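note to self: the first set is below, dont mix up w the second
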Amino acid sequence: MSTFIIDAVGALSTAGTLFIVSAGLTLVFGAMRLINIAHGSFYMYGAFLVTTIGAASAGLRFWLAVVAGCLAVGLIGTAVEVGVMRRIYNSEHLTQLIATFGLFLIFADLALKFWGNSSRTVTAPAAVDGRLSLGGATFPEYDLVIIGFAAVVGVSLWALLQRSAFGWRIQAAVEDPEALQASGVNLRLLRTGVFALGAVLAGLAGAIVTPQVAVAPGMDSAIIVSAFIVAIIGGLGSVAGAALGALIIGTAETIGTVVAPSWASTFIYLAMIIVLVLRPAGLLGIPERAR
């Protein structure tokens, strides 16, 4: 039982981080049909900004650094949308991939210039830096912080999409952007807001995970692969699907680590293959032809 509890908490913590990142990725794709490889860069920048702003203290300054990092990444995302993305919304997905991959490389080079190639660490705030015991199992308190953040993000996104005018406009933009614009809605501004929100979510995931990982160049490429797998399993464009996909990948990774540590990554890709064979559009995705 103790081993099960430890593995379950670890799986939920991993799933929580993946969900926050993937939610921003799938939200942008769902609203704008945009495949953004540079999404991983926003995650990395959120982590690096926290190490820069909040590394000197693990108390209140850490949480202020998380907020500041998210806002800074949101501003970067806004600049990227205004300067680049607006010009490729109606392009083919291959064009979007090439353009965002170019941004990905640029952001990676800038990170090396500003922060170097050495890894950095951040200590969690003392209030959540201990260990909890449950059913004979002991695990880090900070795992529960990440799980809590993921739950809050999930509920907030649901409320935003289902209970607010902004969410209704996002859904209308997916179905018929021309009609929405004809009704007087500033579609350009709406897209900017959605893209900035996606960037903030990626930055938030990078910021809150800093006490548990080594912050270093290359974490952008690692997370974007996992985020795409989660989004594909859940169905690109579905936030609920991203949550389900994150749980599946978090569980698959944990099982792989326990059963066959050297083959742990194989379990992730195996889960993706099984889902795509059964449902090519993802678990909660809608086939393109049905739109």
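second set (the one i keep forgetting abt)
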Amino acid sequence: MSLSILNNIPAIEADNQLNITTAAANKSLEELSSGSRINTGSDDAAGLAISDGLNANVAALTQSSLNATNAVGSLQTADGALSQITSLLNRSVTLATEASSSGLSTSQSAAINTEYQALLTQINNINSSTNFNGSSIFGSSVSAFTSDGTTAGTVSIGATVADTGTTSLSLASTDLTSATDAGSALTAITAAISTVSAERGTLGATVEQLQAASTVDTDEAQNLTSASSDITSADISSVVANDTKYSILEQTGVSALQQANQQAQTVLKLLQ
């Protein structure tokens, strides 16, 4: 083998290999510190694109689940209010039945009607004051927009919460001042109870639909998160093994470069 001071080919080769090893070692350290095998687009362009798309889906699904949960809360608030209205109507049935009997004195009829009118006032109060997150519930629409981030996966679920004031329930003009009036009121009250019961059934069905949608969205978000993690997460055991390997190769590479440089020093001995 000829000796040359112009080009130290073994040293160049050793240096090139050392650079490759160092780059690989740095990549292993990066994966260990971040826990991800994809830290830049150059690591895996296709994998990064897929992962970013999945993460966008997860974000949409997570918010959709929250949207459904908020709508459920609103409808359950309405149902709770309707339950109280039903209790008031049941008490009204008792009063109307009592007032429908003959033999009551004028003062007794007046007392019964006073309580009845107070019940109607409270029904109106519940109807007008019940709200969720600062918005009135009765007489308004409650809906939840759900999406997986795609046009095809977009659904809106909701219901219109009917007004349940005494006017809407046809009770505003009723009274119990006489047996005849009480009989008419009793018919109206019974019908109002049926109306409120039907409304609670409608809201309950919508709540079930929203809860199911929220559960599906949560499960899908979990599955997509797992899929994204499979693409981007580093295999720690493999990375640790590679890091150990590259650490050893760096040491041997440095040693090889030193030896290659020492070979060039033999030229100087020929000049001594």
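remember for set 2: The radius of gyration is 39 Å.
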